[in-house]
Design a protein that fits this description.
The longest helix has 14 residues. By secondary structure, the protein is mostly helical. Helices cover 60% and strands 6% of the residues. A two-stranded antiparallel sheet has the order 1-2.
Length: 70
Amino acid sequence: MQEITDIQELGALIRQKRKAQGLTQEDFADSAGVGTRVVSEIERGKQTAEVGKVLLLAKLAGVKLYTEEA
């Protein structure tokens, strides 16, 4: 299990998983129904108001977020 403590770690993990599936950002964006720019920004760990706040509040509350291999 990998603890996620900030948006940069989450973005890096998403990028890693996407590449492991052999998908380009464009393929990934298309399958998710979002624009390539959104995928790029998330993978770079851009601080968005919503995700950034959720991670910050979770961390401050002592909640640890984990990924689990399916």
